[in-house]
């Protein structure tokens, strides 16, 4: 089951409410959200997406928070692009805890045991990857494109034994 949501409007006040009222089936495997103007993903995402294997988020310029990774046990593919306000390492777990920068809540990211593909594009708040990324044991491809403020990659990236492709482009620093 797949769901693709593409938003083409500028009304910020309705964005959060609109997405909140959409309730996809729990069997949903692929979710793509493009152009949404809300700040936080709705509560249904926290409770009802146990079978999600692919999450694609693009052009969600005001989005500050995505789904808690602890609720995505089967996620294999994660794409985040052109989300200027999103601090990807400040992802709240199901208890509302969060990490910041390199002190990211490691248990939150360790939930991504099935993640094979991680693509980040135009995420301007991305300055570094946390060392816990080395614990993503199934990761086969890591793409980081046009993340202008990216300065460093952690040494733990060498621990990614399944990593076959590492793409870095447009990361000027």
Intertermini distance: 40 Å
Output the strand order for the largest sheet.
1-2-3-4-5-6-7
User: Which sequence of SSEs, written as H and E, runs from N to C?
Assistant: EHEHEEHEEE
State the helicity in percent bands: 10-25%
Strand tally: 7
CATH topology (fold) name: Leucine-rich repeat, LRR (right-handed beta-alpha superhelix)
CATH class descriptor name: Alpha Beta
Poorly predicted tracts of residues:
91-105
CATH architectural grouping: Alpha-Beta Horseshoe
Proportion of residues in β-strands: 15-25%
What is this structure's SSE topology?
Elements: E1 2-6, H1 12-21, E2 30-34, H2 43-47, E3 54-58, E4 77-81, H3 106-110, E5 117-121, E6 141-145, E7 165-169
Parallel strand pairs: 1-2, 2-3, 3-4, 4-5, 5-6, 6-7
Pfam families: LRR_R13L1-DRL21
Domain R13L1/DRL21-like LRR repeat region: 3-83
Protein name: R13L1/DRL21-like LRR repeat region domain-containing protein
Short description:
This protein has a single domain (2-169), classed as Ribonuclease Inhibitor (Leucine-rich repeat, LRR (right-handed beta-alpha superhelix)), CATH 3.80.10.10.
Describe the structure.
The chain is an alpha/beta fold. The protein has a single domain, classed as Leucine-rich repeat, LRR (right-handed beta-alpha superhelix). It is built from three helices and seven strands. A seven-stranded parallel sheet has the order 1-2-3-4-5-6-7, with no helix packed on it. It is globular. The model is unreliable at 91-105 (pLDDT under 50).
């Amino acid at each position: 089951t797949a769901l693709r949501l593409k938003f083409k409007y500028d009304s910020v006040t309705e964005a959060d409410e609109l997405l909140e009222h959409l309730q996809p089936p729990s069997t949903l495997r692929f979710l793509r959200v493009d152009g949404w103007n809300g700040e936080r993903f709705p509560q249904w995402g926290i409770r009802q997406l146990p079978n999600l294997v692919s999450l694609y988020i693009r052009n969600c310029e005001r989005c500050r928070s995505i789904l808690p990774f602890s609720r995505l046990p089967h996620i294999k593919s994660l794409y985040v692009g052109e989300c200027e306000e999103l601090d990807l390492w400040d992802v709240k777990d199901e208890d509302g805890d969060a990490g910041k920068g390199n002190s990211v809540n490691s248990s939150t990211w360790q939930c991504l045991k099935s993640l094979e593909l991680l693509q980040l594009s135009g995420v301007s708040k991305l300055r570094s990857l946390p060392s816990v990324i080395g614990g993503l044991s199934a990761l086969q491809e890591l793409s980081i494109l046009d993340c202008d403020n990216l300065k460093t990659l952690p040494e733990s990236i060498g621990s990614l034994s399944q990593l076959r492709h590492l793409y870095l482009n447009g990361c000027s620093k």
